[in-house]
Structures are given as structure tokens and as C-alpha cells.
Write a structure and sequence with these properties.
Helices cover 71% and strands 0% of the residues. By secondary structure, it is mostly helical. The protein has one domain. Helix 1 packs across helix 3, helix 1 crosses helix 4 and helix 4 crosses helix 5. It is globular, with a radius of gyration of 16 Å.
């Protein structure tokens, strides 16, 4: 389905997807990640955290009853529409936009797959490695920072899994308190 495919006909439902998106953006932009946990406060660092939390929410929506899977797709579609708008604001032109969006989509899907695989694994090292590789890249990171983010991810997954569909339909994502 296209952008807001399932919800495209009703403004109220579009507002739900936009609310979910805002909640994920708010979580991923929390200063604690950049100031205290050392995630680079750059375009790449922000992309990485947004991708992480978008993955957590969309993977949960995909396994819920209808309309969960459609909401997941609409949420990802909105995310890419926002990526497109952000790149245009940064001056990326029409000619190079398809190449940039293709690269972002590949990065997003690759990270989502790595996080999903790590979360399904019984090996905590997989999640740790995925977080270090994606969130920090070549930047230095402290072990305790990675542990705090891992704990936040695990707590977020549990909270999202225990939340009823109504929490998603009202854009009230049950993220745990931020890691300190």
C-alpha cells in the first residue's frame, strides 16, 4: 500500500500514524542518548536512533491483529516521506534524490533486520554488537552506555509487546523511563 494506504481515507487515522511517528522521534531525540550515552549528535546518529526505535515499534505492529500490520507499513512510509523532506531541506536535488533514498532504505532495512535478528536471539552479544556498529560506528563508546541502551531496548520491547492495540491506536507508546 502507498503512503497511509490503509488509513489514507480518514484524517483521524492519519493523525494516529503521525502521532506514533512523533512519539518515536521524541524518544530517539532524547538528549540523554547524545549527551550522556555518547551517541553522536549528527545526522547519522539521529538516523540510527530513529531507525532503532522505529524498528521496535514496527516489528510489534507487524505481528498484531488488523490493523497492526497496515499501521506498521504506514508508519514506515511516513518515515521515508520525512526522510525525503529532510534531504530536500538539506539541498539534495531531484536528480540525486532516488539514489539517496535507495541508500537510506537499504540502511534502514539492513539495520531493522539486524535488530530483529538480535532481539530474537538468546545471545545478548548480538544486540550489543548491532548497537555498537550502528549507533556508534567509528565513534568511541563506553561499555556502560551500550549496556544502558541495551536495557532500554529490552524494556521497550517488553512494554511494546504488553501494550494493547488501543495504545497504538491512540499513539500512546509505552516506552520505559529514559536510561540514565
Amino acid at each position: 500500500m502507498g503512503l497511509f494506504g490503509f488509513f489514507g481515507r480518514r484524517r483521524r487515522n492519519r493523525v494516529v500514524i503521525e502521532g506514533l511517528y512523533r512519539a518515536i522521534v521524541d524518544r530517539s531525540r532524547a538528549p540523554v542518548f547524545y549527551r550522556d550515552l555518547g551517541v553522536p549528535d549528527t545526522l547519522d546518529g539521529r538516523f540510527e536512533l530513529l531507525t532503532l526505535y522505529m524498528t521496535l515499534v514496527s516489528r510489534r505492529l507487524r505481528v498484531m491483529t488488523t490493523p497492526g500490520p497496515d499501521m506498521a507499513q504506514d508508519l514506515v512510509d511516513l518515515t521515508f516521506a520525512q526522510f525525503d523532506a529532510a534531504l530536500r531541506e538539506l539541498g539534495v536535488g531531484d536528480v540525486s534524490m532516488p539514489k539517496r533514498m535507495k541508500a537510506m532504505a537499504a540502511a534502514f532495512l539492513g539495520r531493522a533486520s539486524a535488530y530483529d535478528e538480535a532481539l530474537r536471539s538468546d545471545e545478548p552479544e548480538k544486540l550489543s554488537a548491532a548497537l555498537v556498529r550502528n549507533l556508534y560506528g567509528a565513534a568511541p563508546c563506553a561499555d556502560d552506555a551500550v549496556k544502558k541502551i541495551m536495557q532500554d531496548v529490552r524494556q521497550s520491547v517488553a512494554a511494546l509487546e504488553n501494550a494493547p492495540l488501543d495504545a497504538y491506536l491512540t499513539a500512546q507508546l509505552p516506552f520505559p523511563p529514559l536510561p540514565l
